[in-house]
């Protein structure tokens, strides 16, 4: 895994992204062709038609990112609609496929940390990319995600970081698609600006965004087309997996979590509360939390579960630990229990 550095205009950033990762982007299209078919019965061309309705929402809420999507398509030798579809994959598929992911924010001894495992189908493992993006009109940022997509998990030079938990729900309304909203947050100069993406622009389908900043502010945002539910830190900690917990959201939006979501959340809470408060916390300790196998196969570090149908088997594909005070992101590609060396990136 290497960090791909992109700079220039929106279109130039997209073009360089597309050229650098053309084969991964094309493989991502093939992966989602299979996934859409497995979960919602759509082949790629039908999914492209489904994605078209989100273009107007992006045009209204974040029009600049459309230039970058066009650039990605040009660089990868694909149609723009293919890149739009990749970036709307959650809105198309998460009615049935919730994935995994365990995320937490932790403040200790003046340091604000963000960390998570990203759990998804193993056929997307080799299509993970780490991007450093430098634009003239926004803070530089680092994002780890899927080739061809404008963002997922990351932080920026202003010390704003965000993590993502998928939520399986049949709700979809008006707002920015999940991954476009994450990118807009990552271009925000401060916590309040990032928060307004969820509260003002809104997010058209349910998810959980874990937002934090280097000044020690943190909170969970259970987003959906309405007002997001907010989860404040308790003892400097915010945790989340793949089900809604905030009452104002659970009374409005129905979700369909897999059985492992609540046990993982309880284990995550227990591990973080057990961390010693008398010593400084480092990356190794937090990757240790993400490597936990208690209760497997319903564990934080997820391995293939042969008891599940093949198309529903989710595994941990990468782990990220971010120190927002130092504006440093460390990535372990693959399962954290099997990875000893990471990629370190600073926006």
TrEMBL record:
Gene3D superfamilies, A to Z: 1.10.10.2120, Penicillin V Acylase, Chain A (3.60.60.10)
UniProt entry tagged with the keyword Protein transport: no
NCBIfam families for the chain: C45_proenzyme (NF040521)
Source organism (scientific name): Billgrantia gudaonensis
Name this protein carries in UniProt: Isopenicillin-N N-acyltransferase like protein
Keyword Transferase: yes
Keywords, alphabetical: Acyltransferase, Transferase
A molecular-function term among this protein's GO annotations: acyltransferase activity
InterPro entries found in the cross-reference section: C45_proenzyme-like (IPR047794), Peptidase_C45 (IPR047801), Peptidase_C45_hydrolase (IPR005079)
Pfam family, one: AAT
Ranges of residues in domain Peptidase C45 hydrolase: 110-336
């Amino acid at each position: 895994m290497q960090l791909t550095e992109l700079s220039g205009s929106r279109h130039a950033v997209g073009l360089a992204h597309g050229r650098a990762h053309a084969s991964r982007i094309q493989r991502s299209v093939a992966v989602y062709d299979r996934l859409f078919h497995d979960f919602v019965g759509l082949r790629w061309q039908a999914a492209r038609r489904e994605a078209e309705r989100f273009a107007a929402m992006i045009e209204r809420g974040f029009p600049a990112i459309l230039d970058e999507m066009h650039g990605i398509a040009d660089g990868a030798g694909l149609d723009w609609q293919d890149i739009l579809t990749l970036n709307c994959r959650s809105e198309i598929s998460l009615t049935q496929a919730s994935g995994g992911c365990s995320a937490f924010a932790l403040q200790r001894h003046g340091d604000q940390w963000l960390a998570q495992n990203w759990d998804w189908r193993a056929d997307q493992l080799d299509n993970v990319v780490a991007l450093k993006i430098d634009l003239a009109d926004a803070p530089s940022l680092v994002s780890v995600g899927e080739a061809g997509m404008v963002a997922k998990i990351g932080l920026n030079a202003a010390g704003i970081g965000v993590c993502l938990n998928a939520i399986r729900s049949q709700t979809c309304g008006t707002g920015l698609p999940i991954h476009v909203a994450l990118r807009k947050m990552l271009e925000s100069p401060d916590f309040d600006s990032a928060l307004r993406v969820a509260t003002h622009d809104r997010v058209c389908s349910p998810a959980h965004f874990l937002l934090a900043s280097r000044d020690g502010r943190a909170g969970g945002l259970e987003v959906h087309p309405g007002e997001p539910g907010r989860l404040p830190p308790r003892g400097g900690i915010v945790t989340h997996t793949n089900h809604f917990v905030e009452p104002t959201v659970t009374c409005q939006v129905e979700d369909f979590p897999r059985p492992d979501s609540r046990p993982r959340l309880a284990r995550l809470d227990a591990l973080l509360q057990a961390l010693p408060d008398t010593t400084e916390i480092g990356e190794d300790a937090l990757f240790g939390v993400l490597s936990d196998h208690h209760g497997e196969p319903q564990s934080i570090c997820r391995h293939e579960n042969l008891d599940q149908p093949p198309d529903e088997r989710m595994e941990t594909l990468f782990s990220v630990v971010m120190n927002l005070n130092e504006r440093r992101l460390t990535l372990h590609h693959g399962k954290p229990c099997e990875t000893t060396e990471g990629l370190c990136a600073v926006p």
